[in-house]
């Protein structure tokens, strides 16, 4: 399979339908390990869907607190074609970034469903000194309801495999900026935020992050780290995600489907009164 098509694999399966069994071809979302190394230090290993690896690494290093700005990341040597190098990214960091054997905030070897894996505690996350998102943002409920269809229309790999999560960044006006897919929901978020970091768009004040699955703790902390004021998901958040969002001032929206959503924190950033007035007129 060519390098650019490594995010999808083709396989033979047996389809049972209405009493009949048929041998057919099916598409699978690819899953491969990716190790990030800076000199002698391994910064992390994750299982991901190949593709947009530069964005993934940049987003991971930033949202996990290994780097604090775009300028800290000097170079990325992406995976080669050999078996030993195809899933290894070599990172060159600015000399001001001090690394130790325990320098990664989430130094782990884990599956794609990893959530808080490797974090010592929530207390450790609080000690990172993450800033509350700007309070100036105000979002139209009608605009929020238009975001999930825009996301679904661009999920190319999901359409073929049915097995990927997606994360999308939207401008304050609701304009879709980028969509990234991955078998791991936190990887999809890192890819989207990494795209913004490499493009000089961070902090993402006034932007919306929409995820296709649930709004978990790790996605809340990544949103706050990148300055996103509103995180929305089409499914439910976890209790820990709600707790962290309320503590650090993130607007957290769940069950964003059709013309309905639930606000779990940060209600002041959503123009509810304007929406009610428009409906009554």
Characteristics:
Cytidine Deaminase, domain 2; five-stranded mixed beta sheet; 2 domains; 281 residues; 13 strands; alpha/beta; 9 helices
Can you describe this structure?
- The protein has 281 residues and is α/β, with parallel strands linked by helices.
- The protein has two domains: 32-126, Roll (Ubiquitin-like (UB roll)), CATH 3.10.20; 141-280, Cytidine Deaminase, domain 2 (3-Layer(aba) Sandwich), CATH 3.40.140.10.
- The chain has helices at 53-63, 122-126, 141-145, 147-153, 156-161, 185-198, 217-225, 239-248, 272-280; strands at 8-17, 20-29, 32-38, 41-48, 73-77, 88-93, 109-110, 165-170, 176-182, 208-211, 230-233, 251-257, 260-265.
- The protein has a six-stranded mixed beta sheet with strand order 9-8-10-11-12-13, with helices on both faces. It has a five-stranded mixed beta sheet with strand order 5-6-3-4-7, with helices on one face.
- Helix 6 (185-198) runs parallel beside helix 7.
């Amino acid at each position: 399979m060519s390098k650019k098509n490594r995010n999808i694999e083709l396989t033979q399966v047996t389809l049972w339908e209405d009493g009949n069994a048929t041998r057919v071809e099916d598409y699978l979302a690819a899953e491969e390990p990716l190790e990030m190394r800076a000199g002698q230090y391994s910064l992390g290993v994750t299982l991901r869907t190949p593709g947009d690896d530069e964005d993934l690494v940049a987003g991971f290093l930033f949202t996990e607190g290994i780097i604090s700005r775009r300028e800290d990341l000097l170079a990325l040597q992406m995976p080669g074609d050999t078996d030993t190098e195809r899933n290894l990214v070599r990172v060159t960091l600015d000399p001001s970034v001090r690394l130790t054997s325990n320098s990664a905030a989430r130094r782990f070897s884990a599956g794609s469903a990893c959530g808080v894996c490797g974090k010592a505690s929530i207390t450790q996350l609080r000690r990172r000194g993450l800033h509350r998102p700007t309070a100036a943002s105000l979002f139209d409920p009608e605009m929020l309801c238009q975001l999930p269809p825009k996301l679904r229309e661009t999920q190319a790999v999901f359409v073929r495999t049915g097995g990927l999560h997606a994360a999308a960044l939207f401008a304050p006006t609701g304009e879709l900026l980028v969509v990234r897919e991955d078998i791991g929901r936190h990887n999809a978020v890192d890819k989207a935020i990494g795209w913004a970091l490499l493009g000089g768009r961070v902090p993402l004040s006034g932007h919306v992050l929409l995820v296709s699955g649930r709004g978990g703790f790790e996605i809340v902390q990544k949103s706050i780290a990148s300055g996103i004021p509103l995180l929305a998901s089409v499914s439910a958040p976890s209790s820990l995600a709600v707790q962290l969002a309320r503590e650090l001032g993130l607007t957290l929206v769940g069950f964003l489907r059709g013309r309905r959503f639930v606000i779990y924190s940060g209600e002041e950033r959503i123009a509810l009164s304007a929406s009610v007035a428009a409906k009554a007129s």
